[in-house]
Design brief:
Elements (H helix, E strand, L loop, with lengths): L6 E3 L5 H10 L14 E3 L2 H21 L2 H7 L2 E6 L5 H22 L8 H21 L3 H4 L3 H11 L14 H16 L6 H22 L1 H7 L1 H10 L4 E4 L2 E5 L13 H19 L3 H6 L14 H30 L5 H8 L4 H28 L24 H34 L2 H27 L5
Parallel strand pairs: 1-2
Antiparallel strand pairs: 3-5, 4-5
Helix pairs in contact: 1-2, 2-18, 4-5, 4-7, 4-9, 5-11, 5-16, 8-11, 8-12, 9-10, 12-14, 12-15, 12-16, 14-15, 14-18, 16-17, 17-18
Length: 472
């Protein structure tokens, strides 16, 4: 999963042109490179101008956006009526069998994470690519969920019915905990891409979730199984969705405006998604390593910073939730709204999802360009024994697109563009939600001013991450 870091500075543009680029793309904030990617550094004064432009443009958008624009923008059109089908259960069962094979290969196949199909499938194809596709297009997870088919089969053959009740007071807290454990493995485990180690995680978690679904029924999938809850949240951003048994098509995010008020733990989950991704960038910086007493030039390895990263992950999420709640509270006071803080927090939390998805794409984009090639080679020769099932012949993984100014510029603009679109969509959705509950454009704009500042804070923070040297 690793390729060497290359620290690049865009020199081909003049300072004024660079400033114009940054002004046009102020939300480049979160487009920092993932582990195994590269970092694009721009002059410090560009960050200041970009941040100021973000504040001005965001506040202007919130204050002047006509009320009549948003409703048509987030409308949807019917496409076809959907009916109950066994197809998702069949594909689920097939995916489960494929997952079992991947676990087997993880245990018995090549030890190199870049040659073994298990880590490449889990970390590159599923965690990077599939998560993004889920957010762009809708609920694709229902077709590849590896539990629904096997559970239905087990119930039919064995006659097992749910025999435990999941307490309602827990809400979605089990799903939040499971997701945080996953992120902890991603950030703090000494060797998260080791095939045998990952096989143990994947196989063990599949069995745990299978038994939990059998015991608690579908409620565990909807409230307890962290990845299903996570992916169902991102599905709300997709262009395709179902209402009343009919497939509908609309602008990304249209389903967010048709959601019922999110349950408290579900709203917290949405903030945890963004907070965990942010810390994923922070924990690589010299600043963080210096804070925890590590010389970045003598990095001792992931095993030496497990406790520090776990504590940092918790603090980052707690701080983000607190700041977001404070912004929502201040907006309620400015708009003189009679909504409670808890209600408003749950209403506006879903509007953060586009920022998180745009960040997800930008964070992992460069890693995926390389790891997808390794995944293709592993698919052709999964046991690293010289097979060539896909007929690739002599196949070389290339990183040549990191070596020229033109290709790097394209990569940078792609990453920045994803975050820009996520930021703009989040602003539009937040304003639309405010209009639904506060009525006039003036009150909506007042209520959203603190949230705009909150988003700008993330712009400054992300730009600082881009400017920060990496320790590993």
């Amino acid at each position: 999963m690793m390729i060497p870091h290359a620290i690049l500075r865009i020199k081909s543009a003049t300072p004024f042109a660079t400033f114009l680029i940054a002004l046009a793309l102020p939300s480049l904030a979160q487009a920092h490179a993932s582990e195994g990617g590269f970092v694009l550094l721009l002059p410090t004064d560009v960050y200041i101008f970009s941040g100021a432009a973000s504040v001005a443009l965001t506040v202007l958008l919130l204050a002047l956006l006509p009320e009549r624009v948003l409703s048509p923008m987030f409308s949807s059109v019917p496409m076809s009526r959907t009916r109950g089908s066994l197809a998702p259960l069949i594909t689920s069962t097939l995916v489960c069998l494929f997952l079992f094979w991947l676990v087997h290969v993880g245990k018995t196949g090549p030890r190199d994470p870049l040659a073994n199909p298990l880590p490449l499938t889990i970390w590159s194809l599923w965690w990077i690519a599939f998560v993004f596709l889920q957010g762009m297009f809708g609920n694709l997870w229902r077709w590849i969920n590896p539990w629904t088919g096997p559970v239905a089969l087990a119930r039919k053959i064995l006659g097992i019915k749910p025999f435990l009740s999941l307490p309602s007071r827990l809400g979605h807290s089990p799903a939040v905990l499971i997701f945080l454990l996953f992120v902890a493995v991603l950030l703090a485990d000494p060797a998260p891409a080791d095939p045998a180690r990952l096989a143990g995680y994947v196989g063990g978690y599949w069995l745990f979730s299978f038994l939990a679904i059998l015991a608690f029924g579908p409620r565990w999938l909807h409230r307890g199984e962290g990845f299903t809850v996570f992916l169902r949240l991102y599905a709300r951003l997709g262009v395709f969705g179902r209402i009343g048994g009919r497939l509908r098509l609309g602008l990304n995010g249209w389903q967010v405006l048709r959601m019922r008020k999110a349950a408290p733990w579900l709203a917290v989950f949405m903030l945890v998604i963004l907070g965990s991704g942010s810390f994923d960038g922070l924990n690589e910086t010299f600043w963080w390593l210096d804070l925890i007493g590590i010389n970045p030039l003598e990095y001792p390895g992931r095993s030496a910073v497990i406790a520090q990263n776990l504590i940092g992950l918790g603090v980052a999420n707690g701080l983000l939730i607190s700041v977001f709640a404070g912004a929502v509270w201040l907006g309620l006071r400015l708009a003189k709204a009679d909504l409670s803080l808890g209600t408003a927090f749950c209403l506006f939390a879903p509007t953060i999802l586009p920022i998180a998805l745009g960040y997800h794409f930008a964070h992992y984009f460069t890693s995926f360009l390389v790891d997808a090639q390794y995944a293709l080679a592993a698919a052709s020769d999964p046991m690293a024994n010289g097979a060539d099932y896909l007929g690739l012949g002599t196949f070389y993984v290339t990183t040549g697109f990191f070596n020229t100014h033109d290709s790097v510029r394209v990569l940078w603009l792609t990453q920045a563009g994803a975050v820009v679109l996520g930021h703009i969509l989040a602003v539009l959705l937040a304003h639309a939600v405010a209009l639904q509950h506060f009525g006039s454009n003036r009150r909506a704009a007042l209520s959203q001013a603190p949230l705009a500042m909150f988003m700008i804070f993330y712009t400054f923070f992300g730009l600082w991450l881009l400017a920060s040297p990496r320790g590993f």
